[in-house]
Amino acid sequence: MHGDGWRTRVLAVAVLGVGTAMASCSSGDGAEAQAAAADSLERPGSGMGARVVNVEIAPVAPSSFVDYIRLTGEVEAFHDITISAEESGKIARFEVEKGASVAQGDMIAKIDDAVLVPQVDEARALASVAREQYERQRRLLDEENVGSEIVVLQLKSTYEAAAARLTLLEERMLRTEIRAPVAGIFDERFVEAGELVAPGTPIARVVAVRRVKVAGGVPERYALDIQSGDTARITFDVLPGREFVGTISFVGATIDPANRTIPIEIVLDNRERLVKPNMVANVQVVREQLQGVIVVPQDVVLRTEDGYQVYLVTEREGQLRTAARPVVLGPGYGNRVVVRSGLALGDSLIVVGHRLVDDGSYVRIVGAGGER
Prior knowledge:
- The chain has helices at 2-28, 30-38, 116-144, 149-174; strands at residues 40-43, 47-59, 62-84, 89-94, 101-102, 107-111, 177-179, 184-189, 196-197, 202-219, 231-235, 243-251, 261-269, 280-297, 302-304, 307-316, 319-333, 336-341, 348-352, 362-365.
- Helices cover 24% and strands 45% of the residues.
- It is elongated and about 125 Å long.
- Mean pLDDT is 85; it is low at 1-48.
- Strand 17 and strand 18 form a beta hairpin.
- Helix 3 (116-144) runs antiparallel to helix 4 (149-174).
- By secondary structure, the chain is an alpha+beta fold.
- It has 4 helices and 20 strands.
- The chain has 4 domains: 41-61 and 301-369, conserved putative lor/sdh protein from methanococcus maripaludis s2 fold (Beta Barrel), CATH 2.40.420; 68-77 and 208-290, Elongation Factor Tu (Ef-tu), domain 3, CATH 2.40.30.170; 80-107 and 178-206, CATH 2.40.50.100; 116-174, Helix Hairpins (Orthogonal Bundle), CATH 1.10.287.
- Strands 3-10-13-12-11-14 form a 6-stranded antiparallel barrel.
């Protein structure tokens, strides 16, 4: 009696434990348990409890793909010119304020020409007298045979010397006007009004930014894939959502031995002046446009010890099973990659659930591919 009572109590405790465990599963993990049960079905010929994974598929079809060469560049002004004085003198005034837009030929600053003005007037008067003497003596010699040819030649020489001196002084007068050599922005002023300058003294800096250049280097392995006139797509991290299109205007003839790249320059329209010199640019140059190739999402390709593979859905003995397929990849961009070999048109490629299966797994097709 004593032994039978002990066994009865043990049996009661065991039953109570089982009930408690079942209640716990029902209350805490009921959804997960039901999901696991839904994916563990008995398949004819596969044994009890074969796991079935829900997957989505996409048929393999021909597509187009643009292969880009990607590089980093730096923005340069189309013209960045420092204007220096060509005459000595005091800066009389600045005609425009720093930061103003200037057209080609606009005067930016003026050097005092008080010393040159009387010299020009004197040279002009002397040149006028010398010309009159030369022409009068030449007419007398030609029409009345008065005088000598040597006198006419001397007067001609005197006139030409006076005219040359006048031209020189007039040119020096023009050089007292500091003018913009190109259209752009008066970006920097190196002296102030009233300062004395000499030839070669930097006066002002004019930067042309209506168009800019993006300078970069293309890896030498792409040396034969790029040429002047090619189109480039350019983005900037500081200008999110904006994309610019430029044209390659220069391709270097030599390779930089320091980084094994070929220098290129891309001309970019910048009418809105959003792009600033020295900004870092993300450049994409079209290398090749492919047609009729197989392109798949990058994330469906899994790395293996021997390379890469994808999973397909195949039918075996009336059941949907997975098949691992090794692939050879081509160029990629963003989340798209070209598959050079390993896939055929019409293959059912697993695009969702591919990380949950192995070769030969049972699957159920759901989503865009329809439920089967």
